[in-house]
Write a structure and sequence with these properties.
By secondary structure, the protein is an alpha+beta fold. It folds into 3 domains: 3-13 and 303-411, Anticodon-binding domain (Rossmann fold, 3-Layer(aba) Sandwich), CATH 3.40.50.800; 35-296, Bira Bifunctional Protein, Domain 2 (BirA Bifunctional Protein, domain 2, 2-Layer Sandwich); 429-507, Translation Initiation Factor IF3 (2-Layer Sandwich). The chain is 35% helix and 26% strand. α14 links the parallel β20 and β21. α3 runs antiparallel to α7. The protein starts with a helix and ends with a strand. This is proline--tRNA ligase. Residues 90-305 form the Aminoacyl-transfer RNA synthetases class-II family profile domain.
Length: 508
């Protein structure tokens, strides 16, 4: 609700205006019937994105950007406690530098966008737009790191990257340009690098579980699925029950010394000996917003967790002919002021050319966690009617207890959204031990936990044997919290001795 809207609403309240009765607020598709079309409608009608004339690129509107900004505030504060500094590196990278690390670029080659012309002139050497920034940043690391006193080197940047995605572009989930943070760090020892990988992964878990109210599983990617050119990759994996697909939420990689070797990132250690650094890289993206929408959204639209909603409470007047609109509007304004002073992000909708019912639908579509209604009877009783977005429950709150009750209710909504999502996710997890059980669970759109021999050839074989119209199954991650494995347990796919439990399934 803009200041202009509020001002116009209040200045015109004495005039009789036509109330709009028809609206496209309702969704045409239901989440359970046509998930893809439902999702597209929700993010557009909820005013999160607008489509752009370049396929796979999207305009992020303020309702979405505000969520990204809130997460930036959290993440920046946390990484600064870890002495990680923000920086910015160029968008462009030369072909020679990009192709310096073969395994790395092979992983991105199909998605790299190239600049080949300037005006009408062909560039003598094409320039790539960064798909990620290892090759952009590491020449600087090589120059700036000389001795052990230059370590650790810990940089982060907030930027955009381009990956020319061709298969099913989807807002937030798969786009050709997206926003992210990417951290790049260098250490004298592997132990330091290993420690940071897990510290960052815990921040990613917190983003999903504490802010987005989305349950995730922390684990390690297989050798086949790890970051190209890295030593190992850790991940937080989410799951979308409606589609039966896992989704990689964020990753924290230990790069080992591979890039240090390629880019000659060496230092003189405390013994005066030449050594190579150990490196990490880690990132999360605007994909987080899409995952949140998919998990929590319903047939009325968005459902936003209070911690990430730019408007946590919307206050709506409910006029009646016996009470002056001035009085109602003043009560709404005073309510918003009290909530704002208490640190609650609240706004009022004082537009007088829309009915209260229209406004209810509008803010439900946008996912505002809590709606407060103030009508003549509420004024008499010195109360407000509170309506929760997550479960539609209604309760009357006394004005004397307004701030405490609203804070408690927002906390309860946040927790309830996480608990509900976790119950739904857990109901989709199937433990299997044989190939037949695996295929049955896969066809039922489950997230499958199975004993595995941890052989890449077996993983490739599973992918090949399950390939179909809806995509092949693959490893999602091997969870850090491993269930007990009895002696003699065999791999579900190969019949060889199993070495670990691993989550499998189709994925985005």
């Amino acid at each position: 609700m803009s200041g202009k809207d509020k001002k116009d609403g209040k200045s015109n309240k004495g005039k009789k205006k036509e109330v709009k009765k028809e609206t496209r607020l309702g969704l045409s598709y239901k989440k359970d019937d046509n998930f893809g079309e439902w999702y597209s409608e929700v993010v557009v009608n909820g005013e999160m994105i607008e489509y752009y004339e370049v396929s796979g690129c999207y305009i992020l509107l303020p309702w979405a950007m505000s969520i990204w900004e809130l997460m930036q505030l959290f993440f920046n504060a946390e990484i600064k406690k870890m002495k990680i500094e923000n920086s910015y590196f160029p968008l462009f990278v030369t072909k020679a530098v990009l192709e310096k690390e073969k395994d790395h670029i092979d992983g991105f080659a199909p998605e790299v966008a190239w600049v080949t012309k300037c005006g009408e002139s062909e560039l003598e050497i094409p320039i790539a737009i960064r798909p990620t920034s290892e090759t952009v940043m590491y020449p600087y690391f090589s120059k700036s790191i000389r001795g052990h006193r230059d370590l650790p080197k810990r940089l982060n940047q907030w930027c955009n990257v381009v990956r020319w995605e061709f298969s099913n572009p989807t807002p937030f989930i798969r786009s050709r340009e997206f926003l992210w943070q990417e951290g790049h760090t260098a250490f004298a020892t592997k132990a330091e690098a290993d420690s940071e990988v897990l510290d960052i992964l815990e921040l990613y878990r917190r983003i999903y579980e504490e802010f987005m109210a989305v349950p995730v599983i922390k684990g390690q990617k297989s050798e086949h699925e790890k970051f190209a050119g890295g030593l190992y990759t850790t991940t937080v994996e989410a799951f979308i029950p409606n589609t039966g697909r896992g989704i990689q939420g964020a990753t924290s990689h230990c790069l080992g010394q591979n890039f240090a070797k390629m880019f000659e990132i060496n230092f003189e250690n405390e013994k005066g000996e030449k050594a190579m650094v150990w490196q990490n890289s880690w990132a999360y993206t605007t994909r987080t917003i899409g995952v949140m929408v998919m998990v929590h959204g319903d047939d009325k639209g968005l459902v936003l967790p209070p911690k990430v909603a730019s408007v946590q409470v919307i206050v709506v007047p409910v006029p009646y002919k016996t009470v002056s609109t001035d009085t109602l509007f003043d009560a709404c304004a005073a309510t918003v002021e009290r909530l704002n002073e208490a640190g609650i992000r609240a706004e009022s909708d004082l537009r007088d050319n829309y009915s209260p019912g229209w406004k209810y639908n509008h803010w439900e579509l946008k996912g505002v966690p809590l709606r407060l209604e103030i009508g003549p009877k509420d004024l008499e009783k010195q109360q407000v009617r509170a309506v929760r977005r997550d479960n539609s429950e209604k309760v009357d709150i006394e004005m004397n207890n307004l701030v405490k009750e609203v804070k408690d209710m927002l906390d309860n909504i946040q927790q309830n959204m996480f608990d509900t999502a976790k119950v739904k996710r857990d109901a989709c997890i199937q433990v299997v031990k044989t190939w037949d059980e695996f295929m049955e669970a896969l066809n039922q759109k489950k997230m499958i936990l199975a004993p595995w021999c941890d052989e890449e050839e077996v993983e490739r074989d599973v992918k090949a044997r399950t390939k179909g119209e809806t995509g092949a199954a693959k490893t999602l991650c091997s969870p850090f919290e491993q269930p007990d494995m009895s002696e003699g347990t065999l791999c579900f796919a190969s019949g060889k001795p199993a070495t670990k439990w691993t989550y499998w399934g189709r994925s985005y």
